[in-house]
Amino acid sequence: MPLLSLIIFAPIAITLVGAIFSPPKQMRLVALVSMLVGLALTLFAACTQFDWSGNHTAIVQVYGDSAQSSFQLRESIQWLSDFKISYIVGADNLSMLMVILTAVLGVFGVLCSWKAIDRREKEFYIYLLLLQTGIMGTFLALDMFLFYMFWELMLIPLYFMIGIWGSANRLYATMKFVLYTLVGSVLMLIAIIWMYFNNGATVDGVDTLTRTYSYEVMLATQQGSAAATFHHALWPFLALFLAFAIKVPLFPLHTWLPDAHTEAPTAGSVILAGVLLKTGGYGIIRFCLPLFPEAAVSFAPAITWLAVIAIIYGAWTAIVQTDIKRLVAYSSVSHMGFVILGIFSMNPQGMAGAVLQMINHGISTSGLFLAIGMLYERAHTREMSKFGGLAHTMPVYAALMLVMVLSSVGLPGLNGFLGEFTVLLGSMHNVPMLLDAQNPVSFAAYMNMTHYTWLVAGLATTGVIFGAVYLLILYQKTFFGKPAGAHDDHSHDAHHGDSHGHGGSYPDLSIREWGQLAVLGVAALFIGLYPKPVWKAIAPATRDALAPVATTLDKRIAELPNPGVKLASIQSETRLAAK
Amino acid sequence: METAAYVPAINLHGILPFISLLAGGMLCLAADAMSGKEGSRRILPVISFVALAAALVSFLLPGYPTGSFLENTFYSDSFSRLGCIVILVSAIATTLMGPRQVIRRNLPSGEYYTLIVFAALGMVLLALANEMLSAFVALEIMSLSLYVLTGIDRRSGKSAEASFKYFILGAFASAFFVFGSGFLFGSTRTTFLADAHNYFATRGGNMPEGAEMWAFIAFGLVFVGLCFKLSLAPFHMWAPDVYEGANTPTTLYIATGSKVAAFAFLIHFAHAFSSWQIFTAPVTFIVGLIAVASMTWGNIAAIVQSNLKRMLAYSSVAQTGYMMIAVMVLVALPSLQAAGNLNATTIANDTTLIYNAISLYLAGYTIISILAFGIAFHIGGEGSMAAYRGLFHRKPFAAVGMAIAMFSLSGLGFLPPTIGFIGKFYLFKEAVRFNMTGIAVIGILTSVIAAFYYLSLIVTMFMKAPDEENGIELAGRREERIAGLGGGDAIVRVMLATATALIFVLGLYPGLFTGLAAKAVTTKPMTTAMVKK
Known about the structure:
With about 575 residues, chain A is mostly helical.
């Protein structure tokens, strides 16, 4: 059974067929059923068909090129055979985790739109499901060209969702979102074409090239030889990294995110924060590190600094926001900075923490956006000053929101703590930076800062503290204090004349609403208290991502002109990685 | 040159399309003279359609000659043949839109259909021409017909202005062309491109005093003339005005048919020079420069346009710029071969791939243009943006069709691969293959600029509310309603649906097309004999 293809395409197929027959008002049911089918398929695949041990290997053939592959549930069809492009999907632990996250949040994407979307419903849900298809495909594609197709496919549904159902400044936001993302992705296309032509190894000065778009074949070729052609390639690495860094988003490239988040409808924000940003992190782990280990190690210190800046800058900017959604958007910049920090620590702790942080961010930030969406449906404003004392009038909401906020803050016992803590732990042993400090001509050595990974970890830790500041400010201003007139000085009372008479008092959550938050809250609590199964699922992903980098790091260590005292510890770190 | 026999070797199948087009045009004239206004409105589209379709079929038939025919004045290979097919498809699309356009603006149908067919004749001749004077005659048949078609709406000031501009500037371009032909004759003593190719191959290393410069001037002048027809920057100034002023079917015709014809001839012409060793380096540079200028300027200028047809004019400047990337690669092939980067066994294969890329791109561009201009025509309003505000609410199918056209023109793989995306992908891929990554990067970054205005149109159509409840009364609607065409006509709808289907089918299975192109006939390899000095 082509299980992964079903996961990718069955929901959108059901929705498209349903759209023909259902009346617009019932479209949400069709969408819900589609998402649930997707979720059921995903859980079926994950629980019964998928081997989480990470020991699966098989020899695969793509257009006559064979490779050792650790991907499961593989499907392979020759598609555009003129170009040697094929339709290959497959999953490993990393992609399976992301797929589960996507499938769960997809259901919430429909549920949170249940009442919020009251015009052009058919279109909306078609776009939502199309977006889901694009994201699933991105996580599962094993052909670089196919990956690019799905990557681009994610763009347009969200473009329409923000542009049609967004709030006041939506047209600006949606255009900015598309153009920012496009710049990265088109360069990625050129990089992919370059990789097609240059995949191979240099033996005795002669290039033996295997032209392929298949990720598995590329990986096998590049790892199989110390003289692989990608090793000295900086530009393709940078092109790919740019595409992913824009999506993450990393510090100087983040400016599209607050606009897109603020203007998007709730479902758009939830999917955007919950899953779309993860495609960036996923891409870096999947493609940048294993295929271009040399370039990745070389750029790692610089990227780490950017991540640190993102963590602190995102947190500081979030503190001064008055728009709740904007605040959470900047908090995303900060939290996703941890992901990058963890990945480029290039040790098992950092990498595992980064993967967990991606999942955690998916849970807590989409929880926050869901909660804000519920509030927005009642108050039609996102200004923090318009709220206050909600804890009195909406106790259930206040309790569930608290879980989300604390999870995002990183309170021990909830999921956020584990991810951030592990990343910080990893960043103290940031291997490329330690190596860099050993290099006599580096800035760090000149400044005699052989321990500057501690500086990095220390600075990043302040991000956690500031995180507590802005999130608690958010919670305090909206839930405590005197109830404020949320809309008495506003003219759009007509939008919500049905429910409430006096300012600041809104009906508490319905079952549909608190159900969503409760599920996420339970997930947060579960990961926080009993993370073992998640760690076990992440471990093989960490190992696979770090194996090629570890080889490069070992080589760099061997080349060190003056092996210092720290060398032993670096080596132990990398050996851990290579294990 | 063969001078022994004066019995012209005529391949009847080779000239069958010419005969059919010529006869069709003449028949149109005669039928118009013999029937009244209403009669000719009915019968002329049929005659011109049959003539164009007959020509199309004769190109499609497997027995169509390859290589030189008609005393070496024409040369047919898979690429130029495909060009002819594309030209005739665009001519047929123009004809299919004709009846409604004639009613809409009360145009004289006799001239209208006759000129479409004659222009097609000129284009086909130009695409196949392998001799400068034949090419010039073909160019003039094409151009004069298009000048008149542009200005055929005598009641419209814009149409007259467009026609006049097109004519004046076009006449200049023709003068450049014919002047360049003279220089070619002066330096190589022949107007036959095959002979020029041989001349450069054998004597290119030791040409007489001054002849080298003449040959360069010859190439430059003819190239400028063709650049004008292709509306490449900086020779594109006429395009926005003409696109806007001409009636929409004619705009489509100018944007696709005349460009494809000029492009096909440019390839033949460049091939004549390709055996000349000192030629490749500077010309690669110049072609690259023009490609970059067109891609950049076309896309930037398109952003600020407030009229759809003007926007599409600038966009077509950019689209032609992308095609020039392929020309650049093609021109550079001999020098790559000389430098030892390519070996002789693969070069024929490489050339085929590049020709495939260009063919696919040209066909894709034409199909997408048929969709875009076809919908613009269907909507009416001569491209004014007001007609597109909130179009999705008034005419959802038209809006979705236009969105598909815009997405695939932008060529960025937003949708499951459309032919526009595959075409661009193929071009960039060939550029990267020959280590011209730089121009591919410029190309793809400019296509992000392009995405801005393509997506802006989608914003206008999908994300803004219509201006008024009953929309705007578009020019020509009253006449249409009187003629019983108020809701548009079925033929145009079928045409648009077919174009949409082709965009996706060829996008998902470009093999259908490229396989055809590769297998049909071998193309002229850009380089033949690399002769020692």
